[in-house]
Amino acid sequence: MTITPEHTRRLRSALFVDFDNVYIGLARLDPQAAEAFATDPAHWLSELGQGSDVDGDLTRRFLVRACYLNPSVYSRFRPNFTRAGFKVVDCPSLTQQGKSSADINLVLDAVDALAAPTHYDEFVIVSADADFTPLAQRCRADDRRVTIITASPAASAYRSVADTVIGADALADLVTQTASTFVAEPEPTPEPVQAEPEPVVAEPEAAAPEAAPPATRTGRSRRATRAGTATAPVTPEPVAEEAPPAAPRTTRARVTERVVDEAEARARRAVRRAVRTADAPLPLGAAAQVAQGADPNLASSQWAGTGGFTAWLAKALPDLDVSTRPPGHVWDPQRFGEADLPGAVADTAPNELQRQVIAVTDTPGLSQAQYRVVLKTLAADVAAHPFDRVATSRRVHEACQQSGAKVGRSTVNFVISGVLYTGLSLDAKPTPELVARAWADNVIGLCRGARMELTNGDEAAIRAWVGGGLVSAG
Asked: 115, 282, 286, 356 — which has fewest CB within 10 A?
């Protein structure tokens, strides 16, 4: 029986970069990341060249590399993209409001690529502009894979069209770190399959001085039997004959075991990969499908003898957290917490308005009291320490956990990003009230971007909720 290795898919990709949108978004989130994105595109392009998704590992060959920028503002970055093999398209401002022609140029080139003789497996759109939603839908309708990379909050409708979404925090990490954030769990090095040595059977002597006594079973251990050792006794007393040695495992049996082990290992890697690349806790049903796709025999084996998928998760991937509350979810505790579960509001039931905001904007479903803890903790941290996106997020998350607030790390990242996108500088040591007002402004902006129709009363209620009671409706 042959062990079949996992094959890495190779995608022919077309990459379209809305430079202005990405640079501005990253500059608000992390100025260092914005400069890295603009000055070293070859690095993050190489990082994007390999990765993984729920279907396994993949590599990308970017047959089209196009960057659209406003030359009157960002011409200094043109040589960097030209050197990295991009076609740079000048998109100057054509209106009094300063809006460039990047959108229409990008869409025209992408539609041309759809109709080209070369079949592009994947279209990668680097922009948070929801105006590209129809383009993403058009690519998907043509059976092309769609990957969206955003540097600022993107509308839910836009993200839902994509097969893969790389958010702002992941993009900032990708352009600034030397090691890819999206590399799958390394494959373990397989041990060589070796046949067990055949037991040595002593040839009978030509003539025996005495007849052997009647054979009786002995209590020899498995180790002694498998070693095949039969030492002649020193005493003259009759010695019971050794029990026949147990049949050794054959090479075929060993290989069969290895195939089973490798299949389950593939399932573990696939589930871990799916959980790590998901932008929210993964439903248990989706995770089970991923596992069975990697090892179709799991279900028939009663999930490797554990009796069910949840029990298998606990045994195979003990570092992941699981909630069995219907419909059930699994997540990486380094990225999410129970408060990140869809629609979760820990200490109060959400009203209809809150449910809608959570559903259409992905705003974390914390209660007002929990938001108050997060916002006050964030303000206290930047007042005591210099602001650093990663370090601040870690300290705030740990402080919230110590105070008893069940808040995930991704929730803290989401709040920090939202505050920064409004233009509030966390280096200026703002008060909790200013932080809360900026965060509430961001959530209202997300609601408007999602085309929610809000009355003045709705806005006031949202501000009171996500602002943790620290700001008024003004």
From this structure: 115
